[in-house]
Write a structure and sequence with these properties.
binds protoporphyrin IX containing FE, 9% strand, mainly alpha, 14 helices, Cyt_P450_CS
Length: 346
């Protein structure tokens, strides 16, 4: 606000000054506009678009490394490649852009002033995720306030973040805590089983699973327990709060649904999803890797095992399985899975 008032004074003063006739004022504005236009086009001409151009210009050492320029789409002047993200299939658009720019290991693009790097190469991903240069998670003010300015996930890489990680590792996700949450996992699993058992026709599995994970989280963190099938205002509000691009060089037929690809064959070393094998890293890797990964994996494995143990899972009468995807916080089925279950006879 202050600088606005200052600039108004400046213009008022300039208009009183004889040297600033209307023509010369218009000419100065034109020159400033022209300079802005030239710089904008100059930044935009850089591979990866305006944010990378500006960065190269302001960091001459980067600019001199001409041969090391990372390929990537320029997008539009000023805004860069916003269009890549404005889609529920952003990961496909990004993959297509990489193909078009012949970006094999690494691609650069701009989202406004923010520089973005994408890789689908496990070695490059490991190098990036383990480097302190990439240990910050750039966050806009809105996301930061949404997380009460305290969240570990958006905390800058520094003492506060490190302290939270240490506390979480010692008190929330240590083996004793994971074991201690066993009864809670079992209780929620049997609630799920009795809910699913009530269906004698096709139904969607997603709602119950979502509610189960939310309840599990609330019980672990806040010690609050909700019934899985009860709906009240508080539960609905909570629900509102929470709501596989593969590299063809690493995986054959990357866009086909072949879950067996992740199961190690006889004689092969077991495939780790905990972050050491970057071909598949659902929990991330390196400094910012998910601190709750063991807890998450234990819970998911136990619930899946229980549900498969209790029921035979059969295709729904009405719908075939539709593998269309949508990118939200993670990649989800566009049309949630509907199935029929038959309790196993024992
Ligand atoms: C199957 C379940 C889970 C999956 C797939 C998952 C996945 C992830 C991923 C991909 C990240 C981001 C890593 C990065 O930014 O590089 C992350 C971070 C995080 N996750 Fe998880 N997560 C799961 C369960 C949990 C659970 C149960 C908790 C806690 C109760 C949790 C707490 C966190 C926190 C606090 C971070 C931020 C870490 C940091 O910035 O230092 N996650 N998770």
């Amino acid at each position: 606000m202050r600088s606005n008032i200052e600039s108004v004074w400046l213009f008022a003063l300039a208009s009183k000054c004889r040297a600033f006739s209307q023509e010369s004022f218009a000419f100065s504005v034109f020159i400033i506009f022209l300079a802005w236009l030239v710089m904008t086009l100059f930044y935009w001409a850089h591979p990866g678009g305006p944010a990378w151009g500006k960065f190269s210009f302001l960091n001459p050492s980067f600019l001199s490394a001409v041969n090391k320029r990372i390929p990537g789409p320029r997008g539009l002047p000023v805004i860069g490649s916003m269009n890549l993200m404005a889609s529920s299939l952003a990961h496909h658009r990004i993959a297509a852009a990489a193909e078009a720019c012949k970006a094999k290991r690494l691609m650069a693009f701009s989202l406004g002033h923010t520089r973005v790097l994408v890789t689908c190469n496990p070695d490059v991903a490991r190098e990036m995720l383990n480097s302190s240069v990439f240990a910050d998670r750039p966050v806009k003010e809105s996301a930061y306030s949404l997380m009460f300015n305290r969240a570990i996930g958006f905390a800058p890489y520094g003492v506060y973040w490190r302290t939270l990680r240490r506390i979480a590792a010692m008190h929330l996700f240590c083996p004793k805590q994971i074991k201690g949450a066993e009864d809670q996992r079992r209780e929620i699993a049997s609630e799920m089983v009795s809910l699913y058992a009530q269906h004698d026709r096709s139904f969607s599995v997603r709602q119950v699973l979502k509610r189960a994970s939310l309840n599990n989280m609330m019980a672990s963190i806040f010690g609050r327990k909700y019934k899985l099938n009860s709906t009240n205002n508080e539960v609905e509000q909570l629900q509102a709060l929470v709501d596989e691009g593969l590299d063809p060089q690493q995986w054959a037929h990357p866009l086909e649904f072949i879950p067996d690809r992740f199961v190690s064959k006889e004689g092969e070393v077991e495939f780790s999803v905990l972050g050491s094998d970057l071909r598949l890293a659902p929990f991330g890797s390196g400094r910012r890797t998910c601190p709750g990964k063991k807890m998450g994996l234990t819970t998911v494995s136990f619930w899946v095992a229980t549900l498969v143990h209790e029921f035979e899972w059969l295709p729904s009468d009405q719908n075939t399985i539709d593998l269309s995807e949508v990118l939200r916080l993670s990649c989800e089925m566009l049309n949630p899975l509907t199935v029929k279950v038959r309790p196993r006879l024992r």
